[in-house]
Amino acid sequence: MRWASLLVLVGCAHTVSDGRVELARARRAVAQGEPNRAIDLYDRVPRFSQAWPMAVFEASRERANLKLYGRALGQIMTLRAPQLADWVFPEAFAIEADIYSQNCYYKRALAIAAHFRAAVLPLRDRVMDLLGGAPLGKEVPWIATRLTGATTEAQRWDQLDHLLVEIDLAETTLDDIEARSREQMTALVDGDDKQWTWIVQVVDDQHHSWHFDGEYWPDELGYYNVPLRSSCVRKRGVRTTLF
Fold first, then answer.
1. Is the pTM of this model over 0.85?
2. What angle do CA 102, 107, 111 make, to 5 degrees?
3. Alpha-carbon span 140 to 161, nearest angstrom
4. Does residue 49 contact residue 30 with C-beta atoms inside 8 Å?
5. pLDDT tens for residues 67-119?
6. CATH level 3 topology of 11-225
């Protein structure tokens, strides 16, 4: 059945719209302060269209802001699928780390920050080189992906500058999350020993629920959910209130 689903997706890959109209409408809803409407519009961006990875990321941000943590984490997991390896969103690391920190999974938040520093932060120098006019190589596919559609030098520089801003913003946010997490670890019980890594598909009329086994399938992308229960508890007379 999964192979059949894969064949259908491949067959339709050339007929879906690029999703730019739906993405623009979702962003307009965000600007108007309508996050729920924005999420609905993000979810309408055709899967595997040109705009879909960006829509998945931006929807995860809006869901995190609404404390819809399970779906937000599930969408970040989608962005890390091999099928989307050419797309990297620095701010997704900050969103993910903040969710775990807010729910008192401090070690997990610190591990995400460390992964960002090892995997993404070194690429800032590469972006700076490109801003200086260096040629674009094949060693950083996600930079090339972000430059798709940039037909002029001005557009190329604008996209590269935006990437640099994303990296810097993610680093600053993660610095704050790390400091907060380390401080809170001294006062609160860390729940990292509890199970948090299992992932299931969102259940609706067309999807069934099962445990994620580490293998991504195209027909599952975009439907992941990470069940997350707050691990914040009392310790030494200290209590945290998240909501």
1. no
2. 105
3. 16
4. no
5. 999 999 999 999 988 888 888 899 999 999 999 999 989 999 999 999 999 99
6. 1.25.40
Short-list 12, 202, 232, CA closest to 240: 232
Q: What is the pLDDT of residues 128-137, one digit of tens each?
A: 888 887 887 7
Q: Tell me the domain boundaries of the chain.
A: 11-225
How far is the CA of 236 from the CAs of 106, 183, 186, 188, 239, in angstroms? 18, 15, 10, 8, 9
Shortest CA distance to 104 belongs to which of 37, 6, 194?
Answer: 194
State the Cα–Cα distance between residues 207 and 176, nearest whole angstrom.
38
Q: Give mean pLDDT, residues 37-58.
A: 93
Give me the amino acid identity at 70.
G
